[in-house]
UniProtKB/TrEMBL annotation:
Keywords from the UniProt entry: Oxidoreductase
Glutamate/phenylalanine/leucine/valine/L-tryptophan dehydrogenase C-terminal domain mapped to chain residues: 195-422
Protein name from the UniProt record: Glutamate dehydrogenase
Sequence similarity: Belongs to the Glu/Leu/Phe/Val dehydrogenases family.
Signal peptide: none
Pfam hit, one: ELFV_dehydrog
Length: 425
């Protein structure tokens, strides 16, 4: 059986719709391996709750803009819904649904008691002043208020949002509740109950996954990183700290390359000062497409979905792809990469460090307690390496790719939770 969900715009294949098709394809494959019946497959293919809101934004010049916002809770069978909040002009309900679905499998795979959710607002945050951004964020939160809460659904940063955004979310929710509720979001500033180690957690996880997959000394291992935001910049830094040679990185402003290895700390300084990696003096310019096709040991996509497709997969020369981003590889590209012997460490494993430390932040908030950075890092490492070993063992045992194995484990755990709970009424 092939899983389909109704589309509100069937004629328009947006990148979001492509991401959802990829997520449904991966679910379908995992459900086949698990032998799930049609009813359960359909249940897992459809989000439990899906909300579209209109967010009015008062601009500085008095104009009123109205933008679309979304919050999707894909599954809550294993615990409260959990997932990031994305501000990006291209986001739509399909993309948010796909991202929520991947969150469900990711939380189940690494064994944390959450379901999957995601939120988004179709806007470019760079086009707003800070005051406009704050008003827009607070109004969006107000529109989705009935859905979120520390025991219901807990947002976190994603593309285009950061700890300041989370502070506004926490404040808006708390003002409405009448008391401070730090556990309603994760990825908050430390002063509001954030966790040590949350900022770099996804990138630290990418480093842990890369080193585990390499299985040899990282000294001199060449790396290219697509995306130099919250995940990509620190992933490049941590891989460089571990001894890898980061030879190329890109962001929306451009791509830079230095075969001898980039000084990542200086590049981060340059990007912070100038707004991007373009023009970094100690490197040559490169095209966005060429970065993905460089002859490197490790490619880390850490930007958006659907960047490795059947069109460029045959030209990808990286020996290993470690997915910092969610959904960067399409199913067609997956097949080509597998046939070419490229090892793909899938998103739901490779970038799970973010939600793992988000979970640790939430646990600390719920107990009004805090752990040291050493304790947080130890727990992160334990959970990630545990999941890594389960995925690689299952893949070897059943002859699956790492993505297929990760989905079989994640989907299997959610299916089991449904079966144990039964269906109400
Ligand atoms: P971000 O907004 O901080 O950074 C995104 C980066 O991608 C920016 O540097 C941007 O310039 C760059 N970019 C966008 N389009 C690009 C293109 N076509 N080519 C090259 N670079 C491009 O977002 P982030 O939080 O770093 O998220 C990046 C990815 O990681 C997303 O897929 C997100 O869902 C995933 N992720 C994030 C977290 C987290 O904790 N933030 C956790 C898990 C997964």
């Amino acid at each position: 059986m092939s899983i389909m969900v109704p589309s509100t715009t069937p004629a328009l294949i947006t990148p979001g719709r492509q991401a959802l098709d990829s997520a449904l394809h991966q679910l379908d494959q995992a459900a086949g391996h698990l032998g799930l019946d049609d009813g359960l497959r359909t249940m897992l293919a459809t989000p439990r709750r899906s909300l579209t809101v209109s967010v009015p934004v008062r601009r500085e010049d008095g104009r009123l803009d109205v933008v679309q916002g979304f919050r999707v809770q894909h599954n809550v069978s294993r615990g409260p819904a959990k997932g990031g909040l994305r501000f990006h002009p291209g986001t739509d309900i399909h993309e948010v649904t796909a991202l929520a679905m991947w969150m469900t499998w990711k939380c189940a795979l690494v064994g944390i008691p959450y379901g999957g959710a995601k939120g988004g607002v179709a806007i470019d945050p760079a086009g707003l002043t800070t005051r406009e951004l704050e008003r827009m964020t607070r109004r969006y939160v107000n529109e989705i208020l009935p859905l979120i809460g520390p025991e219901k659904d807990i947002p976190a940063p994603d593309v285009g949002t950061d700890e300041q955004t989370m502070a506004w979310v926490m404040d808006t929710y708390s003002v409405n509740a009448g008391y401070s509720v730090p556990g309603v979001v994760t990825g908050k500033p430390m002063t509001l109950g954030g966790s040590l180690g949350r900022n770099g957690a996804t990138s630290r996880g990418v480093q842990i996954a890369t080193l585990a997959a390499l299985g040899r000394s990282p000294e001199g291992v060449t790396v290219a990183v697509q995306g130099f935001g919250k995940v990509g910049a620190l992933a490049a830094q941590y891989l460089s700290d571990a001894g890898c040679k980061v030879v190329a990185v890109s962001d929306v402003t451009g791509a830079v390359h230095h075969a001898g290895g980039l000084d990542v700390a200086r590049l981060r300084g340059h990007a912070a000062q100038t707004g991007g990696v373009r023009g970094f003096p100690q490197a040559d310019a490169l095209s966005h497409d060429d970065l993905l096709e460089l002859d490197v040991d490790v490619l880390v996509p850490a930007a958006l979905e659907g960047v490795i497709t059947e069109a460029n997969a045959p030209r990808i020369r990286a020996r290993m792809i470690v997915e910092g981003a969610n959904g960067p590889t399409t199913p067609e590209a997956d097949e080509i990469l597998a046939a070419n012997g490229t090892l793909v460490v899938p998103d739901i494993l490779a970038n799970s460090g973010g939600v793992i430390v988000s979970y640790l932040e939430w646990v600390q908030n719920m107990q009004a307690y805090s752990w040291s950075s050493g304790e947080v890092e130890l727990k992160l490492r334990d959970l990630m390496l545990g999941a890594f070993s389960e995925v690689t063992s299952l893949a070897a045992e059943r002859g699956l790719t790492l993505r297929q194995a990760a989905h079989v484990i994640g989907v299997g755990r959610v299916a089991e939770a449904h079966q144990m709970r039964g269906l109400y009424p």
